[in-house]
Write a structure and sequence with these properties.
InterPro entries: MAPEG, MAPEG-like_dom_sf, Membr-assoc_MAPEG. By secondary structure, the chain is mostly helical. The protein is 77% helix and 0% strand. The longest helix has 33 residues.
């Protein structure tokens, strides 16, 4: 069985790779803040008292949470982006790129030590991209199922 990918699908692969670079950036950010806060492994977060007493510990918790939030959002992003990309590869590639840029902005804002800043500087683009992928992929799947069975 051969899988035929649409023309321009290579741009989608570039968008997907950009998400891996975002995860690497976040991993390095978490490591940097872990070291600065002195939080030892296997402790996932600084405890509440540490975070209240130390800005470095609070920044570590924020970096860790930004990374965890990204890991939580990657599976639905990948599924809906890949389904979208089968019909609309260029918009999917652009959406993945925007998502990646938004996650960098999200992480930079979050790791300022003020969690409210996580939604500044373009971080909203990630939600817009994910929602766009979800709507488009749902439409494509529904349209295919209806067309096939009518």
């Amino acid at each position: 069985m051969a899988i035929i990918l649409p023309e321009n699908f290579e741009y989608v692969t570039a968008g997907l790779v950009s998400t891996v670079w975002v995860l690497l950036y976040q991993t390095m950010t978490v490591s940097k803040h872990r070291k600065a806060a002195g939080v030892k492994y296997p402790q996932a977060y600084a405890d509440k008292a540490e975070a209240e007493a130390s800005l470095a510990a609070k920044k570590f918790n924020c970096a860790q949470r930004a990374h965890q939030n990204t890991l939580e959002s990657i599976p639905p992003l990948y599924v809906s982006a890949l389904i979208t990309a089968l019909k609309y590869p260029i918009p999917a590639a652009v959406g993945l790129g925007l998502w990646s840029v938004s996650r960098i902005a999200y992480t930079a804002g979050y790791t300022s030590g003020d969690p409210a800043k996580r939604n500044t500087r373009g971080a909203w683009l990630g939600s817009l991209s994910t929602f766009g992928f979800l709507l488009t992929s749902t439409y494509l799947v529904g349209h295919t199922l209806i067309t096939k069975h009518l």
